[in-house]
Specification:
heterodimer, A: 37 residues, mainly alpha, 78% helix, 0% strand, B: 157 residues, DNA polymerase, domain 1, 2 domains, elongated
């Protein structure tokens, strides 16, 4: 794996990655269902 | 930047970001819920002592309890008959509010005629209500007034 290229991509595309991460956060948050007492 | 390797790496990064978000979101909610649940348990009031629900269980449980206090039956009682005059009782169901069951109860108490009901005083009404366990119903449904009107109709006819 080319780490230089990866860091370059992270530096350029981080807003997109943050957006996708946020979407994942919402999906993960909503997928949790509290156990019934 | 049209290098296919870069595109693949970008896709992998996006996928990784998405999965990381999913895991973080799930874990965050789970941790928050667990913390809230612990607080709720700590703040929750103590549960009430077990009370059986079924009739049989309630009866069994009430053996040790004191019997429920019944309201005292007033001493003044209306004029009652041992048998209907002329061997024929009136149809007490003519009074609105009296159904077959109450009529039977009134017959059993010795109240067979509408004029008997028309002559009830407040104390008499209280006595009958106590017998029938219908608090305030005789007054609310104006049995005495209805009976008096029926008597007037009968007299004028």
């Amino acid at each position: 794996m080319n780490w230089t290229a990866l860091l370059y991509l992270l530096g350029v595309y981080w807003p997109y990655l943050a957006g996708v991460g946020l979407i994942g956060l919402v999906v993960g948050w909503r997928s949790f269902s509290p156990p019934k007492p | 930047m049209t290098n296919p390797a870069h595109i693949a790496e970008t896709a992998v990064l996006l996928l990784a970001a998405y999965l990381l978000g999913c895991v973080l979101g799930y874990a965050a909610r789970r941790i928050l819920h667990a913390g809230r649940g612990t607080r709720q348990v700590a703040a929750a009031p103590l549960p009430e002592p077990y009370r059986p629900r079924s009739t049989a269980a309630r009866l069994a449980a009430s053996v040790d309890d004191e019997p429920p206090a019944r309201p005292p039956i007033p001493s003044a009682r209306p004029v009652t008959l041992s048998a209907p005059r002329g061997g024929r009782a009136d149809n007490l169901k003519q009074i609105k509010g009296i159904g077959p069951k109450i009529e039977a109860s009134l017959y059993a108490m010795g109240i067979f005629h509408i004029d008997q009901i028309a002559g009830w005083s407040k104390a008499d009404m209280a006595w009958v209500e106590a017998q029938l366990t219908f608090k305030g119903r005789i007054r609310r449904e104006n049995w005495v007034e209805q009976a008096a009107d029926l008597c007037k109709l009968k007299a004028s006819a």
